[in-house]
Amino acid sequence: MSKDSFFRDDNSSSMGLLSLLNNEIETNEYQVSESTNQVKKDPTWWIAVVLSFAGLFFGVAIANTQRQQPIVEQNRENLRKSITKSIDNLNITTQNLSSINNEIAQVKSLTPGLDFHGLNQKSETDLQIISGLSAVQGFGYEIELNDAINTDSLDIDKLDLARIYDSDVQLLVNALWASGADSIAINNRRLTSTSAIRSAGDAILVNYQPLLPPYKIAAIGSRSIKEDIYQNADFQDLQFVVKTYGLSFKMSEFKEITMQATGVSLPDMQGITVGSRS
């Protein structure tokens, strides 16, 4: 006789109660067992699906990146060539304009006494030299600034300071002007009263044109520039930066220097009154 039939055949109330409890326990055990098996199976299936989709998306992303990489590199190279070509064309145009301005100045020098309402030939020539509209030749000094080569003694957080910034060039230019320089050029870029020395990212801009190191600052003036500049406060600040971060600083001997014009012609002087009328 089975256990279940034994409980069902017994008519006593106690036996009925035991039968009810036995059925309830067996039912709960089956339900708990089935629920446990289901919980154990579900996470494995869910994780497998997620990993499959993640791998698919990752593979597609890698494939797209590898396919687009040559295009990006080609576009970058084309942009680099376009910028280089534009800079070369600008340099050629500047040289041509400078030559034309020099020819005009020579022609005007053959007509002494020419006067435009108080602006005579000599005054105009002086203005052209001061404003950088004419090429100039004379004796002076050339200073070369460059980034630090040996940075082993610097802390990691100061490595970015071991290069030339636009503020360093500004300090040197201001010191040269204050020491009596008549004309200044940076990497053959003539400076005038309206010249700007700025930065764009890591590049230094002079007259809004990017320059590359080393930065060669030429200054035409007397021999006393070399002595006077060491007494200038801006130059002393620059010397502190040079010594602290190991920047390269070289100053040439007194030599002959030629500077190109800015490539911009003077406006028409006719009708413009400068100075007193006679």
From TrEMBL:
It comes from freshwater metagenome. This is Unannotated protein. The keyword Transmembrane applies. The chain crosses the membrane at residues 45-63. Keywords: Membrane, Transmembrane, Transmembrane helix. Pfam families: DUF881 (PF05949). GO terms for cellular component: plasma membrane. PANTHER family: UPF0749 PROTEIN RV1823 (PTHR37313:SF1), UPF0749 PROTEIN RV1825 (PTHR37313). The keyword Membrane applies.
